[in-house]
Structures are given as structure tokens and as C-alpha cells.
């Protein structure tokens, strides 16, 4: 940017977990730059559908959750990467402002709304950050969003234990997805209860936000 005289800043988010960088999916460049793209479309033929949203290293947990949902619960799960909640939030608010000030003109549609307009099934987002981050763009989702995040006090622990403690690991993503399907009237509560037991989720542990 200095050599070419660009008026722009680039930022790099560094995390302390080794990650193999996958190839860029065809046609995903715009989505990567604007904040969201579909990382993988499910090829599983199922009665139920879900959309799992991950960011950074939590993408690993979303991928694991998608495999569990397809193998054990017959839920076809598309996986989406959120590259920037901030960009999606800015775009959504810009559209809202423009629409408010130009009521007689064609109304603009937020990028996340346009991207997800044809997505089937429930929406579940998991983040290394607090739930408020994915929830900040939930108003522009076609349907309600279940958000998981690391709300609570900091901890010094291994990754697996921390993700279990903050309820953002694969098994909690699975439970959140099944809960969303239940709320959507697709499955019964006892199916979610069985999954909680089968996955070893402690339903009675203290809320990490209050510990």
C-alpha cells in the first residue's frame, strides 16, 4: 500500500493454533472481501437442513459439527465462513440508513441478506468472540439466528476445555442446531434431549457468563 500509494489499511488476525489454509472456493472472492462466503455446500440428502457459520479457528468446530449432524442426526449442513462481522454490520447499517433517507427509491438489500436469501434451514453461528458479535448482524438474516460465543471471564486452559467451557465446540454447535430445528417445529424436544445425553453435554453446569 505504501509502494502503490493506496489509501488503505490491511489487518491480519493471528491465532495460536496451527491451521491448514484450504484453497479458495471458486467464486468466493467477493464474499471473502465483503464478509461472508459459503465454504462448503452439503451433498448429504436429508430431511432437515442447517447453515453453520464459523470464523477463524472455530471453523474447525463448525466442520466437525456438520459431520456429526449429517452422520447421526440426518441434518444436511452447509458451512459458511464469516470473514468480517464488522464489514457485514457496516454494510447492513449503510443500507438501513440509505433506505430510511430514500423511501421512494428502490430499497437496498444488505449483502448478508442477499447472500443467504436462498439458504435452506436454520442458522447457527459460533464465534471465539462474544455472542453480541454474530447477533449484531442477525437482524439481516432471513430467519432467526442461534448464536454461540465466549461470553464470560477469561480462562487459562487448553483449547478443547475452553471451547467446552464456553460452549462453542462441535457438540454445542450440534445441540444449538437441533434446538433451532425444534423451535422451527421440525423436530421434538425429546430428540434434542437425547442428543444432549449422547454427546455428553452437561446441561446443568453453570452459565459461563456468570462463573
Topology:
Layout: H1 29-34, E1 36-40, E2 48-54, H2 58-73, E3 75-82, H3 85-101, H4 111-116, E4 122-126, H5 132-135, E5 145-148, H6 159-165, H7 170-183, H8 189-198
Parallel strand pairs: 2-3, 2-4, 4-5
Antiparallel strand pairs: 1-3
Helix pairs in contact: 2-7, 7-8
How would you explain this protein's 3D organization?
There is one protein chain. The protein is an alpha/beta fold and 211 residues long. It has one domain: Rossmann fold. It has 8 helices and 5 strands. Strand 4, helix 5 and strand 5 form a beta-alpha-beta unit. Helix 2 packs across helix 7 (170-183). The chain starts with 28 loop residues before the first helix and ends in a 13-residue tail after the last helix.
Distance between the termini: 45 Å
N to C succession of SSEs = HEEHEHHEHEHHH
Morphology: globular
Spatial order of the strands forming the largest sheet: 1-3-2-4-5
Beta-strand residue fraction: 5-15%
Mean model confidence by pLDDT: 93
Helix amount = 25-40%
Total beta strand runs: 5
- Unreliable spans: none
Most strands sheet: 5 strands, mixed
Structural class: alpha/beta
- Second rung of CATH, namely the architecture: 3-Layer(aba) Sandwich
Structural domain count:
1
Total helix count? 8
CATH fold title: Rossmann fold
* Alpha-carbon Rg, integer: 18 Å
Kindly provide the name of the CATH class.
Answer: Alpha Beta
Amino acid at each position: 500500500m505504501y509502494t502503490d500509494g493506496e489509501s488503505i489499511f490491511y489487518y491480519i488476525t493471528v491465532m495460536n493454533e496451527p491451521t491448514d489454509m484450504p484453497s479458495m472456493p471458486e467464486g468466493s472472492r467477493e464474499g471473502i472481501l465483503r464478509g461472508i462466503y459459503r465454504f462448503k455446500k452439503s451433498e448429504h440428502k436429508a430431511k432437515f437442513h442447517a447453515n453453520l457459520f464459523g470464523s477463524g479457528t472455530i471453523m474447525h468446530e463448525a466442520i466437525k459439527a456438520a459431520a456429526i449432524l449429517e452422520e447421526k442426526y440426518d441434518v444436511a449442513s452447509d458451512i459458511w465462513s464469516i470473514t468480517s462481522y464488522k464489514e457485514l454490520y457496516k454494510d447492513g447499517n449503510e443500507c438501513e440508513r440509505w433506505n430510511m433517507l430514500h423511501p421512494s427509491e428502490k430499497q437496498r438489500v444488505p449483502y448478508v441478506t442477499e447472500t443467504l436469501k436462498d439458504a435452506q434451514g436454520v442458522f447457527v453461528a459460533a464465534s471465539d468472540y462474544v455472542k453480541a458479535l454474530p447477533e449484531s448482524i442477525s437482524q439481516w438474516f432471513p430467519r432467526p439466528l442461534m448464536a454461540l460465543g465466549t461470553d464470560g471471564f477469561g480462562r487459562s486452559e487448553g483449547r478443547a476445555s475452553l471451547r467446552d467451557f464456553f460452549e462453542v465446540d462441535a457438540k454445542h454447535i450440534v445441540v444449538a442446531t437441533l434446538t433451532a430445528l425444534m423451535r422451527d417445529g421440525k423436530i421434538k424436544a425429546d430428540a434434542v434431549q437425547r442428543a444432549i445425553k449422547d454427546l455428553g453435554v452437561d446441561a446443568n453446569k453453570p452459565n459461563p457468563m456468570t462463573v
